[in-house]
UniProtKB/TrEMBL annotation:
Gene from which the chain derives: NFE2L1
Coiled-coil stretches noted in the UniProt entry, renumbered to this chain: 627-682
UniProt membrane topology term: Single-pass type II membrane protein; Single-pass type III membrane protein
Similarity annotation: Belongs to the bZIP family. CNC subfamily.
MF GO annotations: DNA-binding transcription factor activity, RNA polymerase II-specific; lipid binding; RNA polymerase II cis-regulatory region sequence-specific DNA binding
BP GO annotations: cholesterol metabolic process
Name of the protein this chain belongs to: Endoplasmic reticulum membrane sensor NFE2L1
Subcellular location: Endoplasmic reticulum membrane; Nucleus
Amino acid sequence: MLSLKKYLTEGLIQFTILLSLMGVRVDLDSYLPSHLPPLHEIILGPTSAYTQTQFHSLRGTSDGYGVHPKSVDLDHFFTSRRLLNSVRALDRLQVPTTELDAWLVHREAEGSVSSAQTGSSRPADSPQELPGSENNLRDALVAEQGRGTEDLEELGATAQPGNSDLSKEDIDLIDILWRQDIDLGVGREDFLLHDKRNDELWESPQDDLQVDILEPALLVDGETGENVRHQDQAALSIEECLSLLDASYAFGSPAEFSDSAPSDLQDAERFPGPSTQTDELLSPFLPVMENPVDLEEQWQDLMSLMDMQVMDDNNSADTSLQSSLYPPLQPDVDLERMALPSCSRDQSDIFSSSLEPFVATDSPLPQFSSHNSSDVNSTFGLTNLTGILFSQHLNSTTNLTAPEVLPDPLGGILDEALLDEISLMDLALEEGFSQVQASQLREELDSDSGLSLDSHRSPASPSGSESSSSSSCSSSSSFSEEGAVGYSSDSEVVDQEDSDGAIGYQPEYSKFCRMSSQNPSHYQRLPFLEHIGHNHTYNMMPDEPEEQPVASRGSRRQSGFLDRQAGRDEQRARAMKIPFSNEKIINLPVEEFNELLTKYQLSEAQLCLVRDIRRRGKNKMAAQNCRKRKLDTILNLEQEVKRLNRERSARLREKGENIRSLQQMKQEVENLYQEVFSQLRDQHGRPYSSQRHALHYNSNGNIVLVPRGAEGQQGRRPEKKDQRK
DNA sequence: TTGAATTGTCATCTC
DNA sequence: CTGAGATGACAATTC
């Protein structure tokens, strides 16, 4: 991907920009393989959709702990990470650009949408924007602009004035912005691209419905006040939304967002509100943090697209995707729709209406239609991204659950070579994407009060949401792999455990705090969703209850450490699209485990991986138990040694006492001996000489006086007997 | 930077 | 024979 990106950036993009400046609209996306994400996403990276990945990866692999680059088995992961780091570097540079675009757009929206927009490459060739839509957008953006006024001022008159003169003014603005960002390393192309994107968004024909749809999106993004964001918002990743919802849900905070049950549609509707607040709170961070996250999100989306191909259709267990998703996001259906634009459209007019505008924004309408009708896959990525956000807002009302019905959006479209490359990237993204950033953000956020954290996470503010969301989401979403795991669980807010016994994740390891109740099976169908699911699940803490109370989220900050636990196997499982959690793989009894395997038609490689995971997981636990036992044994032995030492000391004391006692007794015997001996008299009445005689005890207990040197003969010659005392 | 401690994994053995 | 568990050994990672 890196090479691809470079290629596009240096070649096609510049050429496109040139053409666009000349007034010729060129849609590179149309020339790209349908399965690929929009060109601007590939190049610029920063779309909210990628933020999902960020969250996910952060969760799952937060801090990169989840992946062990050194692992021989994960060489490809290691490589992916390197590439990913390069991508990140690029992404950071682009951050400022994004914001600037957004501000500019807002201003212009007031005057004339088309001109205001970016003025860039495309001179309003697109179908005329509806005035109403402009107004709506403008209104929506008002909140955003509040924060961005400073930036606007910096931009100076250029931003506002030239609405009418699109190309030239836009170019001027771009130049100004570009100069400002030069230090940051942002390429001018970036601006152009952003502008173009914006233009597309605005230019695309919009119905009233479309306008309405856009409005929410704009509002949401409006926090950051970035156009790009808005546009990206279309691509807003589910994870991001979820994380945002989760954050709001968990912390409650910022006013509107707080609390209520996630399931409500209102939650989705609330998005805008929180975003604005959060935006203010987050604004300081946003510029810096935002883009990286976006890039990651974009990558995530891209990866998800790739995943779809890779994904096996067999993944049966799509009981209800909705159920697996965050509760707060109620709009499970929306998510599905996002995944499957065509289907979603069919199902509900509302959805389709909402969806179309976004699709149109990113790509020319014709393109969209074609994709939509015939080739779902081609537009899938875009539509998904676009649809996600809106679906939540608009579609939340209806729960459409027909996962099984949904076709594989990308089936077989991807070029294999490209797919391989993308797959690699996907791995990298999922594993360690922006973990460093996430950790940084997390630190910042951690310093802040919990409320602030939540606010950061609010869905509304693109930049804020991204930066904060990346961190918060990662923390909250449990992506960590084992994300939240080990972790006290951030994510869990929403955890809905699968009602399905088979599918539902069950927290296993105490290590992994985070557990999302999301049902992995759903993700099988929806690759990008799958990331989310995996993240949440894998990051779970084993011992943690599946559903964590909202209050428990406070511990998220600590979860990062636990996230490390998300092991390589988690990564592997995700890479291989294993439809169930490692927890289950490891902890289920043999019978249930086999039953689980039978439920899913897994490839040989997947089966092998699952068994390896089970083996390693069990061995890991066994090793832990073994070490624990060993440690206990050592401690017991230590105690035993101490006890024995004490006993030894006691025995020594006893021995000493006995010796002393013996000495005393000997002394007494000696004294008695002397006394007895001194009283003995011979035949002449003279005492015996102790020199020549001695008293001796016979074996029979008698005491006899024997001459010295003849004690051995005493028995034979007893001179005196019965001298007992 | 070094070294100890921790942890994960593999190989092997036992039940 | 298979699976699970135990454990020594090694390597990776963290502190």
